[in-house]
Amino acid sequence: MIKTLHLTLTKKWFDLILSGKKTIEYRECKPYWKARLEGKSFDEIVFINGYGKDRPFMRVEFATMFKARVHYDTTGANGKIFNANVNCYAIVLGEILETRNIDD
Predict the structure, then answer these.
(1) Among 18, 20, 23, which Cα is nearest to 99's?
(2) Number of domains in the chain
(3) Engineered SS bond to 90: which of 11, 59, 68, 76, CB 3.0-4.6 Å?
(4) pLDDT tens, position by position, for the chain (104 residues)?
C-alpha cells in the first residue's frame, strides 16, 4: 500500500516545485506537524494548490525527511522585517510522478 502525505501549497511554492527550483519543502516543528510527520514513512507527496474542484495537482516522490534549523527574513504584525531561526522538518522531494490541471 502506498503511503501518501497530502500538503496544500500557495501558487508561488507549488510553481517553484513544479519548475524544479524548489526541492525541499519545510514545515515548522510544531505539535501539529510532529503528529503528522514524526515516526512515519511516506512513499509520495500529493501537493494541491487551492481548494477548487479543478485545482492544480502534483504527485511527487518522497525522498527523505530530516530536521533542520532554517533562517529566513519575515515581516512581523507591525510591518517590521526581522530574522527568524526556526526548527523545521525538511522534506526532500524526488521526481514529479504526475501532474493535473496545470496551466501552461
Answers:
(1) 18
(2) 1
(3) 68
(4) 999 999 999 999 999 999 999 999 999 999 999 999 999 999 999 999 988 888 999 999 999 999 998 877 666 666 666 667 889 999 999 999 999 998 76
Task: List, in order, residues 6 or more apart from 99 with CB less than 8 Å away.
Answer: 18, 56, 57, 58, 59
Domain, as residue range, for 65: 4-100
For the chain, where are the alpha helices, taking DSSP H only?
A: 11-19, 31-37
Please name the amino acid found at residue 32: Y
**Euclidean distance between CA atoms 58 and 60, whole angstroms:** 6
Cell (9 digits) for 39: 515516526
Cα–Cα separations (whole angstroms), residue 47 to 54, 76, 77, 100, 103: 13, 27, 28, 11, 15
Q: Alpha-carbon distance 103 to 100, whole Å?
A: 9
Q: Residue 49 belongs to a domain with what CATH number?
A: 2.30.130
The grid coordinates of residue 76 equal 512581523
